[in-house]
Amino acid sequence: xxxxxxxxxxxxxxxxxxxxxxxxxxxxxxxxxxxxxxxxxxxxxxxxxxxxxxxxxxxxxxxxxxxxxxxxxxxxxxxxxxxxxxxxxxxxxxxxxxxxxxxxxxxxxxxxxxxxxxxxxxxxxxxxxxxxxxxxxxxxxxxxxxxxxxxxxxxxxxxxxxxxxxxxxxxxxxxxxxxxxxxxxxxxxxxxxxxxxxxxxxxxxxxxxxxxxxxxxxxxxxxxxxxxxxxxxxxxxxxxxxxxxxxxxxxxxxxxxxxxxxxxxxxxxxxxxxxxxxxxxxxxxxxxxxxxxxxxxxxxxxxxxxxxxxxxxxxxxxxxxxxxxxxxxxxxxxxxxxxxxxxxxxxxxxxxxxxxxxxxxxxxxxxxxxxxxxxxxxxxxxxxxxxxxxxxxxxxxxxxxxxxxxxxxxxxxxxxxxxxxxxxxxxxxxxxxxxxxxxxxxxxxxxxxxxxxxxxxxxxxxxxxxxxxxxxxxxxxxxxxxxxxxxxxxxxxxxxxxxxxxxxxxxxxxxxxxxxxxxxxxxxx
Amino acid sequence: xxxxxxxxxxxxxxxxxxxxxxxxxxxxxxxxxxxxxxxxxxxxxxxxxxxxxxxxxxxxxxxxxxxxxxxxxxxxxxxxxxxxxxxxxxxxxxxxxxxxxxxxxxxxxxxxxxxxxxxxxxxxxxxxxxxxxxxxxxx
Lengths: 525, 139
Prior knowledge:
The complex is a heterodimer. By secondary structure, chain A is of the alpha/beta class.
């Protein structure tokens, strides 16, 4: 590599030239070794300036660039695209964030800020010489399938939205639910195994008696809450009790329920600390109103500790009370109990009256949304993390609203934490949209700044395999670790932990980091 | 002669760790200029070697700044980072160096006050413990 560096100074933000002397900085840059061109532009995000800068770069045959401007995320991506056309590798462009790291925070001490900016520039010049040109590679996705795990409210919505983006959707439903949905609906099927990475997953699914392999580009996890099995003393004492959603389905199907109807928040009402999954939901209010509207003489009581009814659904309280729905609130001192000898009477201490009330019921329903028991198995199969309360955990918020830490896997609905049907549907829409978009890209871009193993040094201790959250390292044919480049996200966790220092992160080697630290410490500011 | 200014090295992860000083700058908070930000892709990339080398090269204090542990972009990165930092701290204690000089912090990109707070905390540590190494020892 020749090593001809161009330094670009940007004075776009009006504060920069007032607080530090950009001309002096650029002058200093021009005296440094290997710097062949220095440009000071009004605004580097401006298309005119980009043209000027790239023209200069072409004339001087520049191959490395240092940009003194804003953070990398903020600078116009058109600059990088223009440099790509001028045959400058995009990984050889180094950004120095002088605006947010020097100028603005140190505006009360301009001489120190000037010295700091100079040191940062020198460090960047040294760093850019250590960088190597890298390439990003592309791989075709084998299919455009989007697999939706679960056929509940959010799963159905996710499949509908994903289908609109042009993806082929496959819903994997544990039970025998049958409904209209685009694509394929696989009933009685369970996810057994998964391998691959975002874009090219291979899932092993048991459908009925058969076991088959399914390729897909993206996965939406919409397993929902765990209504299927009720756990807790109340559910044990009263065998005929049913979850709220089943009661809702039966009523909407026209079945006449035996009165009086009592809705209790949780089958395991606890004096212990409350969690969201023990709350009653505003859907119980809606159901009570619906029942009252059908026949005014129906007797409905809602027994709850905490009710989650936010926004406009709070008005449902008033509406329900006006229609004659009875509300009984309790707290940890008097939780509802059912004597097994009398399985159709629930006794609870009313918080308002301070007295124990005995309620005779014909139908008992539970309004809370417990965590799904299947979550653990699914999280284990897909290698996504779980939250401590039994749900599946979100990825970082910077990755997107309904994402998991693994790219290509999205999550929605009560699988995350309990939520009402309409919110779960909204989330399903978002997850479906994102999954569909992910699948319709058709190509996976990978490579760039990823980890690399020097096989002679590797002692196959498996530390990297245990550490990586993306399953990128694996033991290859030579009994040494290798990196699956498509899965590598370039975090460098395996690099830091490798005891034999056999793994290296491209363009972020130990030497580069330590050299940068040394240069920064040499500056006097 | 002016007293020697503290030299503080901050290894910041490219995600929330580097967004934090940007958020502080945007909200107009100023802080001590003696902090040197080194960007790493993730705090899991930080090796004990980098921290020790920084102390050897003349840093008085080193901090590692990553995402919040439950909101890490690379899922377990900031937890890994904390493990390394704790390891370095125990090594420093054995070597007779105050372990307060090395610290791990977590932040998110919306916590504008966090970065200046960290810098002033590390400056306080250096002011209290004095510069690392011999008196008048200049790098």
